[in-house]
Amino acid sequence: MESFEVSKRVEGKINILYIKGYLDAHTAPMLEDEIQGLVDNGEFQILVNFKDLLYISSAGLGVFMGFIENIRSNGGDIKLSNMNSKIFRVFDLLGFPTLYDILEEEQEALTKFNS
Amino acid sequence: MKLKKKIKKIILPTLFLLLVAAINLFKFINPEYLPGLRDLLFIVFIGAAFFSLRDLHQQVSIYSKVKIAVLYLLILYAIYLIFMNISGALDTSDIFRWTAVFSTLYVVVIILIFTIIRDLIFIQRKKATLRNFNIALILILIFSYMMDSQSLNINIQMPSDDSGMLFPSSANSLTIIVVILMIYMIVLNSFRTYWVKYLNRKQKIKTFLLSGIILGLSILIMSKRRSFTEIGDFADANFISAGFIFIIAYFSISMLVILLYLPTAGFLDRKEKELSSLQKQTRSILGVIDLEKVMQIIIEQTIEISSANYCWLIVNNPATNKYELMAEKDLPLALAEKFSGKFDPDFIGWIKKNKTVLMIDRISKDQRTAKIEAWKYRNGSLLGIPLILNEVVTGMLFAVKNIEYGFVADDKTVLSMFANNAALALENARLVEKSLEQEMYEQELKIAHEAQMKLLPSKMPEIKNLEIEASCITANEVGGDYYDFFEFGKSKLGVVIGDVSGKGAEAAFYMAEAKGIIESLSQIYLSPKELLIEANKILFNTLDKKTFISALYGIFDFNNKTFHFCRAGHCPLLYWNNKKEEIYLIEPAGLALGLDSGEYFKKTLVEEQIKFHKNDVMIFYTDGVNEARNVEQDEFEENRLCDVLIENCQSNSTAIKNAILEKIENFVGDQNQHDDLTMVVLKPT
Fold this sequence. Notes:
Largest sheet of chain B: 5 strands, antiparallel
Strand order of the largest sheet of chain B: 2-1-5-4-3
Largest sheet of chain A: 5 strands, mixed
Strand content of chain A: 25-35%
Structural class of chain A: alpha/beta
Helix content of chain A: 40-55%
Shape of chain A: globular
Distance between the termini of chain A: 41 Å
Strand content of chain B: 15-25%
CATH class of chain A: Alpha Beta
Strand order of the largest sheet of chain A: 1-2-3-4-5
Radius of gyration of chain A: 13 Å
CATH architecture of chain A: 2-Layer Sandwich
Number of domains of chain A: 1
Shape of chain B: elongated
CATH superfamily of chain A: STAS domain
Oligomer: heterodimer
């Protein structure tokens, strides 16, 4: 089975999640647990860095959808950054860029959070 | 090999017995010829004969051994009677020779009886048993030799006196020591009568009587024996005397021991019967595969074995690592209720920790049980037996009696033995149940798969001037892909392909739901855009937050030769324009269904229109096609898809579909299909 890892970095009020490997139906619960943990702690400013992600399936995309409503109603957001073109293509096809901030670089996203 | 066995079993014993006889008979032909050496050889060969014959009766049962001993003595007695009969008619020198013949027969029979005594002594043998027996035997042989040589030195024809011949007047201290030692060893060996307890009550009584016969015959023969010892005190006569002493000593003590065992014999028999029936029963549970039944049998048998007032079985639930009440009989309700909560009393903890039987004689006094109020009678006793499998306490069996000191050590042993089988039976039943569940689960998935396949159109619509071909290959038994067609009279055809996010059963249910919604909306909204906007509204509210559906919906209008379609987050439309001979991936903007409540969806969705021509090809597909992966984890991608289409654009729709599937199959190789793979090929003609 393909592997998946999440690591976390905190920058001010923003929690940055670095996701790595394959995000699919089997590994999605790991990311879900991670985000759930942040939400439970009242952390609603979440940036997900896709730099090392190799693959995402529809179940992986679903993770963000599961939280976005709650996080936005709490004044926060999930922003996504550093996607490779293949992964961006998946998001783009489904129309995610209309609904989510998807940024080229982590820094851009941080700036956007703080503005 | 066979010959060796034969030599050992038949030839050697016969040879030794013949030698014994030859030497003994020779003595009477020429008594003065080297008497010391002759007697030495005589006893050595007796020893050898015994040694070679020692396993003669090994295969025979204990009771039969005693019977055979009796038979031998009867033969001996018969020989004696014959001897007595003929001796009267013989003159002295003839008696002399006949005596030799008969004493030889006596010696042989005594050797045979010795082998039986040896067998009996060796039952439940210990390290010292063999040694003690051999010492006794050697002492008997030494005794036979010594007494003889001495008496020979004094007088060959020793006058008999009434005190027999055990202590000749000339006996020196060495002889006395040998005699005392011999008697001591004979008595010591005679106390080895463990065989008695292996007899049942009936056999004990019979054996007691048989031993009596042995004693009677031995004493009878011994007392009359003088008739041929009168003639001479030779090694054979001494051996016969010592032999009878041993036989008499051994069987008198055996009789005593049987007498002691007799009162308890009935009880022991019953116990043994119980045990053997228990073994049969417990073995029979191993054949039962129904878990409930196994547990019920365990309970019933526990009650039966221990005569407990009530009994229950708790089994470890691997999921919670708690012991749960699984079966009971007459368990007081108050106590049973305890098991539904988080009840972990001390006595359960104790068994779990010690992995051994817990016997509590007084429930009210033992600190492990005294705190619990739920016992029906507080003055009771408890027996708790762990069911152990691979060193793990998988369950516990409890039996309670409403009296104190109700259980005895025997209950402990018997129930522990029973528990071993019970643990195994439980595990067997559990495994069988698990595999049955697995099978049922697989069967249900198969049914689900068939049900889902029925949601797809069973055959392609027959439309003039349009070839239609479709394929849906699911990665698991059930999946989230689907396609559908809607005919609006003869001039219009609606085509939809959809892909529910996620996998398996959840995706399959949403697929069924989406199919129903789109099918009903298709009759109301003739514009793809309007239809999808409505579908999104409904699905946004019904789908799980995490779930979305991508779809491509299009309508052919054969009157105008137009095809207009919308893409709700789905893969692009693959379009071969036969007139221009160009290939397109058309991807109008649009969000997947269920992502947004409606505002953005409506704003974003774009309807595209194509004027189609004869021999154009439109292909609807799901991401299972372009994301099909090979062993290097490369994806099939749209460019390969385009290549196949270009190569096959002039073929009919079936051939195009097959070409694409074949290409994907070759690309993927042995890799597992990880996503559903669906496509619809449309070709206007």
